[in-house]
Every structure is written in C-alpha cells, then in structure tokens.
C-alpha cells in the first residue's frame, strides 16, 4: 500500500482584537475532529487572526472540514457580536 499525500488548507480569520480571536479558538478547539486519523487540525492566534491549518487524507475531507470550521466561526463571530464586550460589563 502506498502512502497517500496529505492535502493541506490554511485559513486566516480576522477578528476585532486578539481577545476575540482567542475566544473563538478556545470555543472551536473543544470539539475534536470526527475522523482523527484522517484529519489533523491546528488552531492558533496570530495578532487579531484565528489561524486554522488542516491536513486531510482526501480532498473531499478538506472541503467538509473547511465548511464545518467556517460554520463554527460564523456562529462564534455572531455570538461575540451579539454578546461580546457589552456582556462583560454586566458581570
């Protein structure tokens, strides 16, 4: 059996500040990839950016993983927009 090359995708998502990027990373990082042997994920924060790197065994998994990640980012960003800074002042 030959080794199949891994397919890599890196996505940079800008946030308003490093704190919001870190919150997004912490929220998304809680959920492991469903196919751990076929998808490797690394999340980091670089300034205001959340940086996600994926290595997948197939192009199809790269697409599915990227779509799922972007859906999670959308939800986190909308939640931060709705409850972010103002909610911290209420506590």
UniProtKB/TrEMBL annotation:
Signal peptide: none annotated. Belongs to the CTAG/PCC1 family. GO terms for biological process: tRNA processing; tRNA threonylcarbamoyladenosine metabolic process. GO terms for cellular component: cytoplasm; EKC/KEOPS complex; nucleus. Keywords: Cytoplasm, Nucleus, tRNA processing. Its main location: cytoplasm. Coiled coil: none annotated. This is CTAG/Pcc1 family. It holds the Pfam family Pcc1. The lineage of its organism: Eukaryota, Fungi, Dikarya, Basidiomycota, Agaricomycotina. It is found in: Cytoplasm; Nucleus. Gene3D superfamilies: Alpha-D-phosphohexomutase, C-terminal domain.
């Amino acid at each position: 059996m030959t080794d199949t090359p891994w397919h890599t995708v890196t996505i940079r998502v800008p946030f308003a500040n490093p704190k919001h990027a870190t919150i997004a990373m912490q929220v998304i990082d809680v959920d492991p990839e469903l196919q751990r042997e076929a998808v490797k994920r690394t999340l980091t924060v670089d300034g205001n950016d959340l940086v996600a790197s994926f290595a997948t065994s197939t192009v199809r998994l790269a697409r599915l993983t990227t779509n799922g990640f972007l859906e999670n980012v959308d939800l986190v960003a909308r939640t931060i927009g709705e409850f972010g800074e103002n909610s911290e002042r209420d506590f």
